[in-house]
Amino acid sequence: MKPILLHEDRLFPADEATRSVARSLYQTVKDLPIISPHGHTDPRWFAYDDNFGNATELFILPDHYVFRMLYSQGISLESLGIRRWDGGATEGDPKKIWQIFADHYYLFAGTPSRMWLDTVFKNVFGLSDMLCSENAMDYYEFITAELSKEAYKPRALMDRFNIELIATTEGALDTLEHHRAMQGSGWEKRVITTFRPDDIVDASREDFAANVALLGEITGENTTDWAGYLAAIRQRRQTFREHGATATDHGHPTALTADLSKAECQALFDKCLSGNASAAEQELFRGQMLTELAGMSIEDGMVMQIHPGAFRNHNNDVFTKFGRDKGADIPMQTEYVNALKPLLDKYGNDPRLNIILFTLDETVYSRELAPLAGHYPCLKLGPAWWFHDSPEGMLRYRHQVTETAGLFNTVGFNDDTRAFLSIPARHDVARRIDCRFLANMVVEHRISEDEAASLIKQLSYDLAKKAYKLGQE
Amino acid sequence: MKPILLHEDRLFPADEATRSVARSLYQTVKDLPIISPHGHTDPRWFAYDDNFGNATELFILPDHYVFRMLYSQGISLESLGIRRWDGGATEGDPKKIWQIFADHYYLFAGTPSRMWLDTVFKNVFGLSDMLCSENAMDYYEFITAELSKEAYKPRALMDRFNIELIATTEGALDTLEHHRAMQGSGWEKRVITTFRPDDIVDASREDFAANVALLGEITGENTTDWAGYLAAIRQRRQTFREHGATATDHGHPTALTADLSKAECQALFDKCLSGNASAAEQELFRGQMLTELAGMSIEDGMVMQIHPGAFRNHNNDVFTKFGRDKGADIPMQTEYVNALKPLLDKYGNDPRLNIILFTLDETVYSRELAPLAGHYPCLKLGPAWWFHDSPEGMLRYRHQVTETAGLFNTVGFNDDTRAFLSIPARHDVARRIDCRFLANMVVEHRISEDEAASLIKQLSYDLAKKAYKLGQE
Amino acid sequence: MKPILLHEDRLFPADEATRSVARSLYQTVKDLPIISPHGHTDPRWFAYDDNFGNATELFILPDHYVFRMLYSQGISLESLGIRRWDGGATEGDPKKIWQIFADHYYLFAGTPSRMWLDTVFKNVFGLSDMLCSENAMDYYEFITAELSKEAYKPRALMDRFNIELIATTEGALDTLEHHRAMQGSGWEKRVITTFRPDDIVDASREDFAANVALLGEITGENTTDWAGYLAAIRQRRQTFREHGATATDHGHPTALTADLSKAECQALFDKCLSGNASAAEQELFRGQMLTELAGMSIEDGMVMQIHPGAFRNHNNDVFTKFGRDKGADIPMQTEYVNALKPLLDKYGNDPRLNIILFTLDETVYSRELAPLAGHYPCLKLGPAWWFHDSPEGMLRYRHQVTETAGLFNTVGFNDDTRAFLSIPARHDVARRIDCRFLANMVVEHRISEDEAASLIKQLSYDLAKKAYKLGQE
Predict the structure, then answer these.
(1) What is the ipTM of this complex?
(2) What percentage of residues in chain B have a pLDDT greater than 90?
(3) Given CB atoms, is A314 within the 8 Å cutoff of chain B?
(4) At what angle do helices B16-29 and B423-443 cross, to 10 degrees?
(5) Are B406 and C330 within 8 A, CB to CB?
(6) β-bridge pairing C310-311 and C330-331
(7) Among A292, B311, C151, C335, which is least packed, fewest CB within 10 Å?
(8) What domains are defined for chain B?
């Protein structure tokens, strides 16, 4: 068996002079509280503070990074216990699943998943041997036993992880019951929601009309009418605000925006509700809604996050059998300069608007996003996202964005995860890479070590609080 | 207050062995004369040699790199004294503007503007503390006082900066009066013009027909006729040649070229003049004109520069209030392989043709531009441009271009600036980065140190003179 | 005269700690046998073992990397002795051609060609001075004399180069006579063919209908009928299998695939045969054929290689005078996510299917290819290809692919060359760069040195054998 690598200098560059600066910078931020302003943890955990289940339930079943790699090497999703939509049989023994995972842990060499997992195994559970076939069952049993203890309950981990604040993400129709359950406990200040209205905005979904009808029921508005539909959304936003939301999130296929007349909006909305809209009309409706939602953000102060560019559920067979979020989302080329223009023409110079742009298409960093964020007062750049939330991805992001947008048009780190236990590991990778990036600038005499010390605190903590308006209320 | 960083090893890589080679190479080129074959300085300066105005007029008002960053952080262009087209009020006190700039100088950490400005402040003015809120007024007054001295007149600075030759850029309708004023003084050999006919070629401009009419007046040709229009352009080119021009420049939205019949050309030209051409027809006309202008380059020997890919004046509101060149130009994806084919089919193998290609879309470096320049005898690659005229941008350029195009299909550095005082700083950055790139190849045993010494002189001086035909006439 | 650089540490990174790890890793793989699973050597060489001709015939005339660079600098293809299709005169004296090459050898500084050539000159021929004008004739005569010796016959070089296996590439109509000539000699196990059916699949070729007719003659099938055409292809695949083929190769302009009904296929095939198909229909036909060929791969187990994205013969004039493969192929933007979907919808989860994807568009590494290969069990990624088969290109590939696809979804190295003597040099570059990449991960504590040692053997040898099914039959 091999030891888990978790060298104190991991991810710092080889050059000793640079590494030394990176190490010093890291010392100043490694223990800062974690701000997690965008992610997908379950509010239920923090509301009721129940223990997590076994190792397999925690580390494999919900982690599409993990099972996509295993699937790519010919391991069936059934054998990994991924639940089938169609009721087909899947492996039910969590130990067998864990063994498969351990047998193939070598596949993750060089991936961020490997570093996140090793960090959790060592830093959260105190394990010291790297996971492999031989120790798989010891691992499973040890982790599962630990998970049943007080110290591994969600709220205890929140404290242990030094997470000052975490934002979950809920759909527009969500009851927010788990957030409501936290009210008065103090935890509602540490666990806030985010308003994600894709379900009532994306007319390509089979359940769009039903969702809009439900939106009407929930709000008492006439959501068959364009004005009523907008009023209902405003009402939902207000409810989300009451549960701490400072931001909205929009996961559209593209960054298209539009600026139609009211009459055009009503007609397009009618067509979308009727189920007869073409794909292009559905896309136009999503684009119009981004502009409408920007207008609402100006009214209520919520920060917009736009996450475009994924071809969702690319694998038909996997989608049919297993449903969404099964590691089969693939990035597509994404254009921003023309796509965002209608929204920017309407609201781009309004000092009350705050939009954070993300991308899965790294080619736009230097070509489109940095120039846009380096000009428009309403635009900031979210961190390297999803497939690019990785050491190399983050380095490419900083190297390609900074010279044009500077550092103050970025917003710190998002872990964007449902893997709660990995949150400290993910923030740690981001802090290390930012230390490395700044150390490199110091050693090349582009910024001073003093400046770097000030900047690393911004990147690790301050910018996230400011961009997501988390400090001032 | 902090000192200005301007370490003698700045921009060299951290690794000591590589840095040492870079340092040695740099010693051999740092004092070479500057060839500035493409830029936007004002010929008036060199013709009449008047002193520049105050610090704000020199460093803030004309520098879109500076005010785009400030604007992106919520500082109004009005407060920066940018003149409004519509006559709206703007800040008139240059000291107040300078103070805002100084207060926000930290925003430029990690950007090329910061390095250029620091270099000017320290090397040109002898300042040693970094600009900040506290020393803003001292800075302003010191710089403004210095600017009124003999030693800061344009011609004195040309000598001090060791600029052997500088090319300005004038529109096709320009009177060239300032260049004419230099004739006989000897300065006309150091300050030459460049022919940029966008104003008479781009039919999407509101003033296109008026410009073509004025072209007719200036030349005595019938510019309502296709043949007369071309003859008029030839005549203007000849006039520019007489004022030193060895190159033309073309700032089109795309790299599209076309090769239409004469009858099609006349019909398209008529439609463009009538104001009824569609956007696609205007684009086709620009494309046809690139091919026509290539033909003229074969006749008169002028080198063509093609600078495509900017979405100009993306911010409607800023354009309406403040006009062009206000930091709101955003790069777009740009295609060359299909776009250039009509021109290349017609003239691509003519040994008399020289075209220098630029891009704002770094994805084409390795995919399109290096393969094109590594095959077609008429094509060379201009240096990293605009947003990519930066340490990281230049490194990406060299790393992505060299293996396919080699170094001899590139043309040295362009500063492309109207910020005259920053010219030495910009060439210095380029020389340092090229030293670094070559030093890296030396240390990796890909070229010898002797070769690197020969190559760095090419990159710093020889290639620019050769590519722009500046030495042999 | 300068010595040839061929430092034992070439291509290793400057940092001494990293270099030391790279050096150690390299020691473990530098002498591993070469697996060359995809290339364009001539089977004739290995079948009859005749000596090669002179230095010019061997190093200049067939190497488009060499003459494209010379041509780009204004040297005519005629003067390089490239044979004209139209019978026009070209230089016939190999010594004059060699002298031109030597005079311009400096142009290759920083290119992979320079490293490959220097390696051959020094390691294969024992030359120690770098090629230049002065030693050109000595070089020519020495090399040409050596080539006439026993030790320089193809089979002797195969042994000397330690090439365990090499795959050639033949068109679907090839007689495979040279492979047949090897049968029974033992050499048929070391020299295998690859099935490349572009000539009978690409309806945009002038000879498409004639080729399909010839296919019918060869196989006895009625190839005017869709079913007969497919049966004929199956038959040819079987014949190729009998000459060792384990893989097919497809050099389409794009990665488009399609999944039409049989009736649509017959109609489209008819139209393509008639010569009346539009460019879009020809493209659709190629796309349909990729899907058909994937189906056949499932049947017979051959691995599909898809090499899309070249604009072939971009230079009209060069094509007209000199024909194909004259250094005028230029990469184009290439899309995979939508293009491959029809094929993947049909066969993407079949465990019997193996597809290796290549690209000339590096922007898809992190955005499309790594996510696709990191999910679909049938997809693996071929190495950096053609213009990107270079130190920088390979580093970009590893850095952009590994975090999402891991290392086990890649397939080792392809030399893809017709330049037989350069094969060891090319594999050596690949091994060095992979050592460097892994060493960097070791020094950054992302993998252990033990893991790196295991991985470098995979990347240098094992993965190629496994991906191309070369070991188990």
Answers:
(1) 0.97
(2) 98
(3) no
(4) 130
(5) no
(6) antiparallel
(7) C151
(8) 16-51+151-467 (3.20.20.140), 52-150 (1.10.2020.10)
